[in-house]
Amino acid sequence: MTGLQTLVLQAGLFYASIFGISYLSRMILDSFARWFKWKGWTLGPNIPADIKKCVVVAAPHTSNWDFVYSMAALHLFEANVNYLAKKELFKFPMKWILENTGAISVERSKNYGMVESIIQKFNESEKLILVIAGEGTRGKVEKWKSGLYHVAFGAQIPIMPAYLDYAKKEAGFGAPIYPDVIKEKTAAALRAFYADKIAKFPENFNPDSIRF
Question: Which end of the chain, N or C, is less surrounded by CB atoms within 10 Å?
């Protein structure tokens, strides 16, 4: 961690200790939302109200700006989403931060894999909207990570394709995709959806890489 990162973390913890993590999170998200609107971005379709559990895959991912616009859109949608964090990270002070920003603790051991742990979380939950990375990096990839498919298929829940289209300046969700026992059918549906979505850096996003 650099000196600047340490200073930012200390400042964040200082303000969080005074105002609380929830207040700090809202303040940051409100700022993202104002930027989103000021830059001319609009919202597309939201997650259907009747979907209580799903895996959200966000793409294209080619820039750090994707995080800002994605978080702004989720805030404006009033979507209550979660993300994954290793069980080992849930110690003070990180536990306080993680639990107040939607993190879910997952245990990964030699005899109990990450996918099985996430499926169990879905089976134990009445409502859970979980973001799982597809590309896993801002750079161009040859093949997506298959974990999102295995989680959705194992838990028998839909995949919600979320998108940022920089050409249209629009953020939203596509129709739910229910995982097929044949992985290629699910991958083909995702490729078709993302085929016309324009990334911040189009040269780093290839829909043909959506394979499991």
Answer: N
Q: How far apart are CA 188 and CA 185, in angstroms?
A: 5
Which regions of the chain does DSSP assign to beta strands (E)? 42-43, 53-59, 83-86, 103-106, 128-131, 159-165, 170-173
Domain count, the chain: 1
State the Cα–Cα distance between residues 160 and 111, nearest whole angstrom: 29
- Series of mean pLDDT values for 10-residue runs along the chain (212 residues): 47 45 70 94 96 93 88 89 79 71 67 79 92 77 86 96 96 96 94 95 89 86
Q: Which residues pair with 55 in a beta bridge?
A: 130, 159
Q: How far is CA 197 from CA 64, 97, 139, in A?
A: 17, 33, 16
Could you say which DSSP state residue 78 is in? T
The Cα 13–Cα 21 span in angstroms is 8
pTM exceeds 0.85 for this model: no
> In degrees rounded to 5, what are phi and psi of residue 161?
-80, 115
Three-class SS string for 28-55?
HHHHHHHHHHHCCCEECCCCCCCCCEEE
Burial call 100-112: b when 16+ CB within 10 Å, e when fewer: eebbbbbeeeeee
Q: Which domain holds residue 170?
A: 3-209
Q: Kindly report the number of other CB atoms within 10 A of residue 18's CB atom.
A: 9
